[in-house]
Write a structure and sequence with these properties.
The chain has 2 domains: 250 residues; 283 residues, Nitrilase/N-carbamoyl-D-aminoacid amidohydrolase (4-Layer Sandwich). Helices cover 44% and strands 12% of the residues. 49% of the residues are buried.
Length: 545
């Protein structure tokens, strides 16, 4: 086969994966998306004498580049450099994973062991992508079902990584069936039977989980425990207004929308991420000037709690140990941390603050450990605080007035299943997502981000109130169904009730256990592969001598 055909097959894999992706893709294509790429790797394996050592990386890169480019190109609306880095690097990381599988397969005793390596390596990488400084789990395979969430109601047991396992094994079953049929050479009864068996296994592998999911979906009933919300979508342009509008105008815009919907039964008024931009120093709460206006609203409604996003900072006390993200004051001695903060305002005198802890790479997070602080100079400037932000170590649950405990999720954090579940494990009975999403314009970016919230609701069986500055805002129930969905780039306010839930799902209790198994398997497979290759080399030396 000509090498150009291998590249075209790789690109075809990327196209299939792209056509499967939210928000308009069909996720059924995920189960065949990797088959052309598996054929390419198998061809390289069978003709390895004709190819260089790292051919799997070279020939798989077009697939992953195509997939990344066609599904996440919209990042360029906020930053061209960030888009290029995200597409190029994430494609490279996935190609390295595929190369590692190809190498391990060459050392291991049989094809089954090789496929175990592929599944383990891929899931271990997705887990890494959820937890390291360069986090970018946007294209984790399990997220591909976020628009068809009725297929994956069993995520309450596995999390989204269960979807990744489902997809990978499905591709392997189908490819093995095609490979074993050998229709290229002759059509015999045993080969036909093998193909039928493989296709039957493939269809069952896909169909049974979907059937189980539909049964769960239609039989899931929420227990009545209403919490009343008013959610605001103020539609402040993040490029031309967010950092220039006076805070009192921002609060005025929010209250103009929310005011007509508030009443004595309202438990929460929710406004989006970064809504308040003023000098808010946590060392001195009196600097939160715009919050005084919201306190006046609290005074009118006995049950009301207000959750709103803002940018805050905290100066370190003299002698206090500095964090890795500490910044030096430009014109005076001392250090401070800057935060992307969710602020809960109640009738109590004190404010409850949560600092965003899953930060956006390149904008809010850069390597800040010793020797790499200079990278802060290359942080992407989107108009707000630039450079690595401070974070919270604890997944905070707010103590509220006359209603259930809730937790805030800020923007990018809603992509992280186990992280989201930790708030629930700590006692949150309803979740609140506040985000901006205006940076990307009216592209698939904000719609994909919104769709991921369906999966978080299913994993935790928690209702979600979602407030997005420019949209999409909505109420999402415990089955993942959305209600009162707003349009994009329009001022809006919605009013509704969500049921609280105090029960913990299997996934909330155990987290990403599938990933931890994959990490251990990855380590074991790598050790076995290295041992085997060492023995082979020694055997060859012995034969040569």
């Amino acid at each position: 086969m000509k090498k150009i055909y291998l590249i075209l097959l790789s690109v075809f894999s990327g196209l299939l994966l792209s056509l499967s992706w939210p928000e308009h893709g069909f996720p059924g294509l995920l189960f065949i998306g990797l088959v052309p790429l598996l054929y390419v790797e198998d061809y390289l394996f069978r003709h390895r004498d004709r190819f260089v050592k790292f051919s799997a990386l070279f020939y798989s890169y077009p697939a992953f580049f195509t997939w990344n480019l066609l599904t996440t190109w919209w990042i360029c609306n906020s930053t061209l450099v960030g888009a290029i880095m995200a597409v190029v690097l994430n494609s490279l990381f996935l190609a390295i994973v595929f190369q590692a599988y190809s190498w391990a397969k060459n050392q291991l005793p049989n094809r089954l062991a090789g496929y175990v390596a592929l599944v383990s390596f891929w899931i271990a990488f997705e887990y890494l992508h959820l937890n390291w400084i360069l986090t970018w789990p946007w294209l984790n395979l399990g997220n591909g079902f976020s628009s068809y969430y009725n297929w994956v109601q069993w995520y309450e047991y596995t999390g989204a990584l269960g979807g990744t396992l489902w997809v990978l094994v499905g591709n392997i079953i189908l490819f093995e069936g095609i490979r074993n049929s050998k229709f290229e050479t002759r059509n015999t009864e045993p080969e036909t039977r093998n193909l039928i068996v493989s296709l039957t296994a493939f269809l069952l592998w896909i169909g049974l989980p979907i059937t189980i999911s539909c049964i769960i979906y239609h039989n899931y009933t929420e227990k009545p425990a209403p919490v009343n919300f008013v959610v605001v979508q103020p539609n402040v342009d993040p490029y031309s207004e967010q950092y220039t509008l006076p805070p009192n105008q921002v609060i005025g815009r929010i209250m103009d929308l929310a005011g007509p919907l508030l009443d004595s039964t309202t438990n929460f008024l929710v406004a989006p991420e970064s809504a308040i931009q003023e000098d808010m120093w946590e060392n001195n709460m009196s600097t939160f000037a715009s919050l005084t206006l919201l306190k006046e609203v609290i005074g009118q409604y006995a049950r009301l709690n207000i959750l709103i996003g803002g940018s805050t900072a905290r100066a370190f006390e003299e002698g206090e140990e500095l964090s890795r993200t500490a910044r030096k004051f430009r014109n005076s001695a001392g250090y401070y941390d800057a935060y992307n903060t969710a602020i809960l305002i109640t009738s109590s005198d004190s404010l409850q603050l949560y600092h965003k802890s899953k930060l956006t790479p390149g904008v809010e997070a850069l390597p800040s450990f010793r020797g790499f602080k200079w990278l802060e100079n290359f942080a992407l400037d989107l108009g707000g605080t630039v450079g690595s932000l401070g974070t919270d170590d604890y997944r905070k649950v707010y103590a509220t007035v006359k209603t259930v405990p809730v937790s805030p999720i800020i923007c990018y954090e809603s992509v992280f299943g186990e992280f989201f579940a930790e708030f629930v494990k700590n006692g949150a009975e309803v979740m609140i997502i506040i985000t901006n999403d205006g940076w990307w314009g009216n592209t698939p970016g904000h719609r994909q981000h919104y769709a991921f919230a369906h999966l978080r609701a299913i994993e935790t069986r928690r209702s979600i109130a979602r407030s997005a500055n420019t949209g999409i805002s909505a109420f999402i129930d415990q089955r993942g169904d959305a209600h009162d969905v707003t349009g994009y780039w329009v001022p809006a306010a919605i009013k509704g009730s969500l049921n609280a839930n105090s029960e913990l799902t299997f996934y909330v209790t155990h987290g990403d256990y599938i990933a931890r198994i994959a990490v251990w398997l990855t380590a074991l497979i790598l050790v076995i592969s290295l041992v085997l290759v060492t023995f082979v080399k020694k055997a060859h030396r012995h034969i040569d001598t």
